[in-house]
Amino acid sequence: MLKIYHNxxxxxxxxxxxxxxxxxxxxxxxxYLDDPLSKEELQQIIKLLNIKPIDLARKNEAIWKTxxxxxxxxxxxxxxxxxxxxxxxxRPIVINNDxxxxxxxxxxxxxxx
Length: 113
Known about the structure:
The protein is an alpha+beta fold. The protein is built from four helices and four strands.
């Protein structure tokens, strides 16, 4: 089943949602700011994306700049930072069974639906 990890305040995330709506396929919307991900869920998403945790972190967010910029962090610490501050998670993330993609640009979502 298709899932989108969505932040309605993000224009890219809204575009990603629109792409899924236009696809005609059923999907689940996960508002990860309202219902934060567990450490295990986030680690699974990172594994599906086949990236390092740092590649999922939004490094231009004020939270990152204030608390983490310039520090040497382990993958575990980066995951913890995103679990504790979900705003740091890049979006949208779309998962289709065992495939996942960060929808930046949103058109990339078409590659997995």
